[in-house]
Amino acid sequence: MVFKNHIAYRFLTDINLTMEMCETTHPDEWKELLKRDKKDRKEDLERMEFNPSPGLESFLHLISFNQNKTFYVSETVLEKLDFLKINKTGPHFNWMVFKGLPDQKITLIMPNQRVLRIWIHSETINLFWLTFKEDKNLGHNIEGRMHWVMNYIKTDTGELCEHFDHPDSLEIEEFMYKLMCFFYLTDNDEVIIPAGKVHGTRKTGKVLNDFRFPVTMVNSRWNTAVIRTEQFGVRGHFRVQPCGKARSEYELIFIEPFIKHGYKRQAGKTGHVEN
Fold it and tell me: Is 20 exposed, middle or buried (0-12, 13-18, 19+ CB in 10 A)?
């Protein structure tokens, strides 16, 4: 992984991209801001010294690289996502498991040109999912198309924004939810890669941090996952488990593979045993 070849590099370093995204998402508000203020727009954005409308200001705080901490999510974490069993209580997952997280702004960089920005403030979790599809790659000149999806969750009420029901959001909700479960509900191994340094080997996979700031690499402590193929075998999997006072907190636990000998399931008023 070379960060300079990833869309995250532009997202976290290029103020011109920030300006282009503002113009794309809030075209009318952006034009009005330019008319009203003739100062150097790049400097204003970098210092956050301007007076935009509330909608544009919120978007800028979400995508800006100010007060951000950057993480690289390794393949060992992503490989475990399929082993996390989660159930929906309705059309969406239970996002209230993340209630109580402290205010923060982080960026999760993943392979295959994927980025997840998480901005938490005032009991609101804002999610910004960014992908990049390459059309062609000529040396360092990469051309393609960016696509982003924005959502938010109000953790004081459990309210999800309307955009959660959009097909683009439904397509990625499960992946984002599982990724955040691993990131926030487990004790992962973290390795800080200083600016300009390389971590790993050719065999394990090298990560070159060519940012001007450190990046924290996140590895899952569950380094093995066993799948049982015997009849009635249940493969090992992860589960979000309520815990703490009044079971108001959550943690991610690993259920070892086991052989299912039968279980009792209620069907209406009649119970029966299946083997």
Answer: middle
Model pTM? 0.80
Distance of CA 109 to the CA centre of its chain: 8
Using a 10 angstrom Cβ sphere, with 0-12 exposed, 13-18 middle and 19 or more buried, the burial of residue 239 is middle
The answer to whether residues 44 and 37 touch, using CB atoms and an 8 Å cutoff, is yes
DSSP-derived letter for residue 39 is S
What pLDDT, in 10s, does the model give residues 70-98? 999 998 889 888 888 887 878 999 898 89
Domains of the chain by residue range: 3-219, 233-274
Please give the mean pLDDT across all residues of the chain: 80
Q: How far is CA 157 from the centre of its chain?
A: 21
8 A C-beta contact, residue 81 and residue 163: no
**Pick from 89, 99, 92, 88: which is nearest to 154 by CA?**
99
